[in-house]
Amino acid sequence: MHTYxxxxxxxxxxGLAAAFELVTLKPDARILLLxxxxxxxxxxxxxxxxxxxxPIGFPTEYWDPETASSYxxxxxxxxxxxxxxxxxxxxxxxxxxxxGVDLLMIRQSHLGTDGGLKLIKxxxxxxxxxxxxxxxxxxxxxxxxxxKTARTSKREVGYDQLVVAPGRHGFDFLxxxxxxxxxxxxxxxxxxxxxxxxxxxxxxxxxxxxxxxFLFPERTRTFCTNxxxxxxxxxxxxxTNGQKYYSVNGHAYSHEKASNxxxxxxxxxxxxxxxxxASGQDYAEFLASLAMxxxxxxxxxxxxxxxxxxxxxxxDGLNGDLYDFEPSLPSCTPGDIGLAMPSKFLRSIWKAxxxxxxxxxxxxxxxxxxxxxxxxxxxxxxRFLNEFFMAAEDIYLIGDxxxxxxxxxxxxxxxxxxxxxxxxxxxx
Length: 428
Hints:
This protein has 428 residues and is an alpha+beta fold. The protein folds into two domains: 209 residues, 3-Layer(bba) Sandwich (FAD/NAD(P)-binding domain), CATH 3.50.50; 189 residues, no CATH class. Helix content is 29%, strand content 29%. Strands 1, 2, 6, 7, 8, 9, 21 and 22 form an eight-stranded mixed beta sheet that branches. The longest helix has 19 residues. The chain is globular, with a radius of gyration of 22 Å.
């Protein structure tokens, strides 16, 4: 049985950052990076937009401005992003401020999905050249904390330090991992929303600000804007009971790809549950299953023109007349989002969209499409033993799935922070 100085689970930005930092600190360290998928996954794959301004991507319960800024600087030094220009935003800011909405100015870079895949390939090759053992299609199944061994889908290995960074797709895996290993956690917050798709001419702000961040009342916000060669996609998840469901998302290719003239972005409503609800994750899975039931196994899409009239969208009515573009995710079911989304979420989102249409007139064109569901799982909140995200002796939980970040740069920073914790404990 091989024994490693550190086993890292998950090859998204959190796991990659931890691996790079540890092998830099101790070049002769024996490091194993496990990834259950065929290729390295995580937030770097889809669209690969990165935000370099606090607090975007940094949950404030774990990150104060000074700490986050320090780690952001380290992440930026390593990733060497090309920061996108921003211009002509005074009018939008004044309109937003007049109606109680904030437009955050965030330093951003954008590689696109094709650029993200290229970056992942380069990073994995660099880790391999540095001596890190990268094993794809190998899943962590369980650990023995006393013996400090890990059982994977292919073998058993020993470890001195264990870093678990499964990302949002590994949310349920991490919850089971914490239960199995007596790691205390809370699970009470989720983001629920829609993905909006329209023509760039109806949302021209993206010509001057790639991913505009609007904060609306009632804990509602825009998230993950994509434009140019932009597409809405569906992502497959597995619920705790084994049921499969889809959540929509968006991505875009780099500027090297021809534009399809579309833009998409999410509008999300955050909620934190209190007693007696036991699990935000279970609630999110219930909403997803209701959407799948309503949509016949697929997400639902509805034109704004139909939504305003209080009627469902139909396949026959999706195109023609004012409905002047075809959906980029045609596999969705035309229908009525109001049958599947709780009214509290829907009211907040619709209020935000009307405010957004005041700031950027035209976004609520009748042709604009709402896709549902878009659900973000950040509910896991482990009870950490120290500031470096150690949740049990020599076990660190990091990244979006562990609630320590909300995006690529925050996840990368959490990987660096866990590595710092290992360095201090082990003297690397």
